[in-house]
Write a structure and sequence with these properties.
With about 290 residues, the protein is mainly alpha-helical. The protein has one domain. About 65% of the residues lie in helices and about 5% in strands. The chain contains eight helices and six strands. The chain has a two-stranded antiparallel ribbon with strand order 1-2. It holds the Pfam family MHYT. Keywords: Membrane, Transmembrane, Transmembrane helix.
Length: about 290
Amino acid sequence: MAQISHFEYGWITPALSYALSVLGSVLGLVCAGRIRTASSTGQRIWWGSLSAWALGGTAIWAMHFMAMLGFAVSGTRIRYDVPITIASTVIAVVAVGIGLAIVGTGRLTAPRLLVGGLFTGAGVAAMHYTGMAAMRLNGTFGYDTLRVVLSVVIAVVAATVALWLAMTVRRPLAIAGSALLMGVAVNGMHFTGMSALSVHLHPRTGVVSGAGVSTLLTPIVLAVIFVVVGLVYALLAAPTDEDRAAAAYLDSRYAAAEQTPAPPEPIDPVGLRGRSTLGQPGTPFPSRRNPPPR
C-alpha cells in the first residue's frame, strides 16, 4: 500500500479550497435569494442558474480540485482524465440546479426540502467520486466502505442545510455566517471521502497518461475568475428592492396623471343660451347702446 499525502504543499491548498467554497457560497446564497423575489419564470430560471454555477461550480467543484492539488502518492505521478473531470463539473452544477428547482418553486415544505437535499447531496457525492475516478496513476484505488457512506451522509446533510439557507437567509451578516458554515461542511465532506481512499501501486512502472495538474490549473483558475466576475456583475446590474419600489412609484404617478380629468372649458361670457360672437369681425363690443344679441 502506497503512502498518501493530502497536504503536499502544507496549509496553502486547504486554505484556498476553503476560501473558494466560502466565496462560492456567498455568491450562491445571494443569487438564490433573488429566486423567490423574481417576478417572472424567466428571472427565476436565470437566478437559479447563476446560483447553481456559484454553489456547484465554485463552492463545490473548484474547491474539490483545489484541495486535490495537495494530494500526492509516493512512488507515482498523478494525471487527470480531462473528459471525466469535465463530467464531474457538470454533475455538480446540474445537481445543485435541480435541488434549487425543487425547493425554489412553490411553498417551502419539509418534504420538498428533504427531497431536494437528498438529490443534491447524492449529486455532490457523485461529483466527488467521479473526480476521483478521473485520476490516473500507476496503481489501483481502494475505498473504506464505512467512510464512503459517512461522506455521502455528510454531503446530503450539508446539501439540505445549504438549500434551506439559500431559501431563507437574506441579511448580509447571516449570509456571511452561513457561507462560513457551508465552507466547513463542503471541505469536511471532501476530506472525509479522501480519507477513505487507499492506493495499491503496481509492481511495474510505466507512463501515466492524462493531463497534469499544471495543465488543468490555468484554465480552471481562469474559469473561476470569469464565473465570479460574471456573477458579481449580474448582481450589481440587477435592480434592487429600492429600484423596484421607485419604478412602481413612478408608474403609479403616471397612471394617476393619465386618469386626472381635463380642466373645464371657460364659461361663455354671454351666458349659456347661445354661441358667443365676441371677438368676431363686425361684431360690436357690448355696451349700454349695443347690448349683446339674445
